[in-house]
Amino acid sequence: MSILQDFWCTDELALHTFASLPAADLRNCAQVSRSFNRIAVQSILDQHKIWNAQRSAVFELANNPNDLDGLSALLLSVHIKSMANVHFDLMKVVSLPSAVKTFHKMQRFVDRMASLHTVYVSWPSGAYQDRPVSDKMLVNAYKRVQEFLDTIISKGCIELKFGHFNVFASKYKLKKNPAITAAEIPGAPAAGRGSIWESAREYLPFRHTRAAPDVLSPLSEEGNYCRKSSRFSISAPWMSLTPSPKLSQVTKVTTFCTYSTSVFRPPFSQWTFALLQASPVTWMTLSIQDIPDDGVESKLILDRLAEAIPDVTTLHLNGARPGLMKDVVAWLRRFQQLQVLKIEPECFPAGTDIDDLELEALARLPHISKLLSSSYFLCAYLASCRSVGGKSLPGRLKEVIMKHKWTSSTRSAVLAFIKDVERLHNAILEAYPEPELRDLTLHILLCFDRFSDRAEALGRIWDRLDSRILQPNDSDAQKPSIEAPPYFRPTKSQPLLCLELLIPTATVDGIQRGAVDEEAIAFCRMFPTLRELMLCSPAAVVSPSPALPLRKERLDKIKSVCPELSYGWVY
């Protein structure tokens, strides 16, 4: 009998049994004992593909807050007391009452944790923002969001990320008056030559708010916005998230990422800017795709950001709309402590003239050590460095990262890509004196939409090339130069060449087992002098982890086409 008892109590069999139970029974099982709680919770987490909850978890929250999802499972758990990375995905939540209840659940969960390192919140994309919403519901929603955000900060969150967050900000607009209209006219005289915000204060009206005595009043900047009235609110009273008075005492945020500029507009701006000003933020990721079209407002947002995080050392920009980068490049010169600058290639849409960006201001930043962008921007930046300070100024730059979206593996596309690499390499040789090249890395970063298909097409090019080498004929000599081998072989051994592949369908374990060996080799063949290889799985985007050395058998296999390869990493 004891043998049968031991058999029936194994975790594997209990987990298999619990997996077939309905949600209500799983809830009951989780309350029987600590052992059943652990197994029942893990059964629910398995269904939502959360394997190691204490390390990282992605919660895809349903529109019905009563559904038994991964977040509900951890609220039932009596074992898990701390988490490293958590991602709350509310993209399926399409009703405001459900969102309010969901934020309450999120706040309860965060409050139970002893600590949190990274929190990523994907706010609803606006599926219900056109539906009529009463002021009472808005107040309730703001309260829940504020409680959730304050609780995150109180738990020692170091890295805070926001996605979208544009649900309520669209209800606010900057007030207009004749002074603003005059300020928008090109060549209009500016009142003083201070910051943009200091100048703007002279023509933006101040609006007193009706805040309660025990609540922090919105800053004067927020007072210059008004909320659109509706049939539910004729007077459109002011509503805003207000920062906690203890914010400066508890915040530990050093990394702030947002994929919408709505967090810098009411009702969130007062809370956001207070957090940034009180926190030791050194890393900022900013998407400016949806920055307001109003030139005055967009400049105000950028200027307040520069005032809030003057000592930022890493800045990552993506998603800029056409015509904005000229203002952004001029804005970047205010960050005199900047060391790492990443500007995604999509910030420069077709038709953008990089020559008009006045890169000399960017070239004068004294501490830039790493720069990521398109090959055209990098070449223009290096040329600006030479025009500003000769060949000595770019010496602080230790890594140049050329990012390229691989969308085609045709021979013409491959040759165009190699020519971009050669153009950047030549620009580096012109900008750097010989001794300093030893400390510089040329980093080629490739991202894919369909990795396997692209690699297979590229592999066919190499196969045809190999067959022509093995079986030459007289007609080969008459072929045009486009038939030349599509690879990059620099004339000098420096700078060090690194290739990074962002593989959308791979896992770290699969890479280490050789699942993408042949595909990786197809791309490595373009760089015979490659010294370092990095392979990235999509999991690293959700929950970053330290890079692991590539297994020796993998490294040796790739060395067959890149004899100088010394380092290999996977993450």
Automatic annotation (TrEMBL):
<dbReference type="Pfam" id="PF12937">
    <property type="entry name" value="F-box-like"/>
</dbReference>
<feature type="domain" description="F-box">
    <location>
        <begin position="11"/>
        <end position="45"/>
    </location>
</feature>
<dbReference type="InterPro" id="IPR036047">
    <property type="entry name" value="F-box-like_dom_sf"/>
</dbReference>
<dbReference type="InterPro" id="IPR001810">
    <property type="entry name" value="F-box_dom"/>
</dbReference>
<protein>
    <recommendedName>
        <fullName>F-box domain-containing protein</fullName>
    </recommendedName>
</protein>
